[in-house]
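Course assignment 3, question 2. Fill in each field.
Student: A.L.
Task: Predict the tertiary structure for the chain below.
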Amino acid sequence: MHRPPHRAHQALVRRLVESRRLRGGGEVLRGHHNTNYVLRAGPALALLLGAVPFTRLKYRVPLTTVEVVPRVWPRESEVLRVVCRHLRDVPPCLADLGDRSVHRYRTGRALDEARPGGTAGADEALMRGFAAFFVRTARVPVAELPALPGDWPEDGDSQGFLDWLVRFTEERVHRPHRDRFGALLDAVGVPRDATARFAAHHRCRTARPFRLLHTDVHRANAVLRGRRITVIDWELAILGDPLHDLATHLVRMGYDKHDQVRMTELWAEAMEGAGLTELTAGLDDDLAIYLAFEHAQSVFPDVMRAAIDLPADAAPEHFGLAADRVGRAVRRAREPLRLVDVPDREQVLDALRSWHAAHGRPDDASAHPPRRPA
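Answer field:
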């Protein structure tokens, strides 16, 4: 089949998919980073995408929001090109449209819909499925992955990798947003030298080989078909210490302490059973460091998002929910960031009201529909 030149092809796909989006009728899934429109591919669009007519697609449109997570590879399509060769269940990117993209839709139910309720449903079979996923991801050949930034740490430099994550948190998340959120962070007990405090007291003791990491394996990104788990949305994938991937999963899944321990055991057993024992080196000491980092870095996005998500006409219940969200984040970050003065709920409410009076705008949150996991 003769295809038009790349730019013309891209423009035609975008025109057709936008037309389908504007017609409405499909499911809309909104996450922290994107709005995803689930659409049916008509015959012309399917032909351009190389898909079966009327198959379901996911059209991803990025949200304008504060930068809080590293994006080492700016084109998710390049990562998926590699991932899909080795994890055949992961839905591929069918069209990279620059700032937007079209993906094959993975049928099934997101885990947070199939088994809602925080830690509910974290059974042994489910955790074994996640452990198997981490093994398959660790087996993706590093040599096939896209090029990394020039300042990326050398393979196996686990402390260098942690240092890079801390620098990103300070230089790209905390410092650039200090003008807008500094007074709020101060008021809820997060000082200007928070990341320096973390770096001064947390060091990895063991080197581990780097592997592909998803870094965002949680309930909204896990799709169930029967008992099989497919992990979607690879835009935040990086190359680094596998313990970081495990730590983000343990925290973002909302496991209780017992399930955290069991998931860690199953992860280690799966890695060792797959002949990847070197990835578990220093697990007992260094996993705690990455868990501390996850709690430390998340205080910045959690506080900022809680403030931004307040509608322009926020009611007392909105402030109450935001205060609970901020309070939880600050309490989790208290030990890793060596926080001294942690405010009570009334102080957090006052801080949010003050921020909202000075910075709250209709285009911060009320212009967006309620968030649904994507």
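Instructor remarks: The first strand starts at residue 27 and ends at 30. DSSP finds 13 helices and ten strands in the chain.
Grade: pending
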